[in-house]
Amino acid sequence: MSVSRTHRTIETIWRMESPKIIAGVTRIVRDVGLAEDIAQDALVIALDRWPEMGIPEKPGAWLMTTAKRRALDLLRRNKLQDQKYVEIAREIELFTEDDVDRALDGEIEDDLLRLIFMTCHPVLSQDARVALTLRLLCGLTTDEIARSFLIAESTVAQRIVRAKRTLNAEKVPFEVPVGKELEERLSAVLEVIYLMFNEGYSATSGQNWTRPLLCQEALRLGRVLAAIVPGEPEVHGLVALMELQSSRLKTRVNAQGEPILLMDQNRALWDQLLIRRGLSALEREQKLGRTLGPYALQAAITACHAVARTPEDTNWIRIAALYEALSRQMPSPIVELNRAVAIGMAFGPAYGLQLVDALYAEPSLAGYHLLPSVRGDLLEKLGRYEEAAAEFERAAAMTRNEKEQALLLKRAAACRQEGGQA
Fold first, then answer.
1. Could you tell me the end-to-end alpha-carbon distance of the chain, in angstroms, rounded to an integer?
2. Of 120, 257, 285, 291, which is least surrounded by CB within 10 A?
3. CA distance 382 to 78
4. Could you give the CA distance from residue 111 to residue 69 in angstroms, rounded to a whole number?
5. Are residues 281 and 306 in contact, defined by beta-carbon separation less than 8 angstroms?
6. 328 with 364: CB under 8 angstroms?
7. Using an 8 Å Cβ cutoff, are 192 and 129 in contact?
8. Which residues contact 370 (CB under 8 A, 6 or more apart)?
């Protein structure tokens, strides 16, 4: 394998493993900023050594072991060999190739949840929590985060640096809180897990349309949280949403990694076990007897797709009504865009197009690639192929995901061809 190809492989591994490594090191040093630096050191070592020695059989364990050893070396250099250090050292299992399976089943997974609760502490603003989450847990660069939120990269970088400094200065504990403190952070934690899942479901940038391992990790954390607070409806709502959406992951791309749109997916290949689990989680949420929250409403929308055997069986009128309820609870231009899609499917593309056109005056959607993408889809359904092609091309220029860009350009070319034949 060439050096450049090895480096690309290492970067892919790092993207998958870095949240666990940062969480594991944070447990040792109790400083999330320092933990990220140490984890990055492990990555640099891998980039130096692996091209010569080859990629280890279990690269995640190798990176974790290297990072933890550097963390312990740092503690020793800082002369922290007191009783507290001895106790911490006893807690920590240095991961080797032989015991990786045991290690992965225990400490790492718990540490990820602790890290999320740590980064969701109320000493941080919502903007800081989101930026730190996307950086540490989803592995996005500051540039990718900045483009996602249409803000300057320097602003994102400052938020992340300040957030890490604040957590350290306030000595925020690396733990899952209990009682009232847990309740106070719960909505922020749910938002973080939701962000993780969405980044896995539709990657912001890069060569892959999806990042299934990130979805799996978010879903696992949601399930753990549901066991910790079984009386919280929205926890079950979020789990239901992730279970149901995960059921479609394998059908969202073809063998070449190219995206497959929802209406074109082979529903026979949807994971029925995950669908049953999702519907059960939604039922548990409803049995708690409270008004459906935003996550539960989105889960109910996803359930409409999950139970439809064919695209034509989809209850789009119910989906439109659910989006109307969601827009009242969580008003946002993106919810309105999704509602426009549902209206277009339920009552005809002309009605959907009216709603989409009204959203073009919304400043926050100025750089959002799905706005022209949705408009292109509606225009295509109306037979306005040249206009549709222009919208697809506009959307392709906005997205950072290579697979999505290729799909949009392919749809634009198809519309150009249809328009030429008309």
1. 50
2. 291
3. 69
4. 17
5. no
6. no
7. yes
8. 334, 337, 395
Neighbours of 89 (CB within 10 A): 15
Helix 179-201, helix 233-246: angle, nearest 10: 20
Any idea what the Cα angle at residue 318 is, between residues 282 and 354, rounded to 5°?
130
Provide the whole-model pTM. 0.81
Q: How far is the C-alpha of 304 from the C-alpha of 296, rounded, in Å? A: 13
> Using an 8 Å Cβ cutoff, are 204 and 135 in contact?
no
> Which residues, 6 or more positions from 314, have their beta carbon under 8 angstroms from its beta carbon?
304, 305, 308, 345
H or E element that contains 401: strand 400-401
The rounded distance, in Å, linking the Cα atoms of 13 and 244 is: 27
Q: What is the mean pLDDT of residues 209-216?
A: 88
Residue appearing with tokens 């479901």: 201
Between CA 325 and CA 197 the distance in angstroms is 23
Structure tokens at 132: 């730190």
Contact 162, 128 (CB under 8 A): yes
Which phi and psi (to 5°) does residue 206 adopt? 100, -170
Residues 6 or more apart whose CB falls under 8 angstroms from that of 4 comprise none
Q: Are 382 and 353 in contact (CB under 8 A)?
A: yes
Q: What is the pLDDT of residue 259?
A: 92
**Distances from the Cα of 402 to the Cα of 23, 194, 344, angstroms:** 30, 23, 28
On whether the CB atoms of residues 19 and 68 are closer than 8 A, the answer is: no
Structural contact between residues 301 and 323, judged by C-beta atoms closer than 8 angstroms: yes
Q: How confident is the model at residue 103 (pLDDT cuts 50, 70, 90)?
A: very low
* Token reading at 301: 């929308």
Cα four-point dihedral sign 224, 227, 229, 234: positive
Q: Which residues contact 122 (CB under 8 A, 6 or more apart)?
A: 184, 185, 188
Provide the angle, in degrees to the nearest 10, between the axes of the packed helices 59-77 and 83-91: 170
Record the tokens describing residue 210, joined without a space.
């999806």
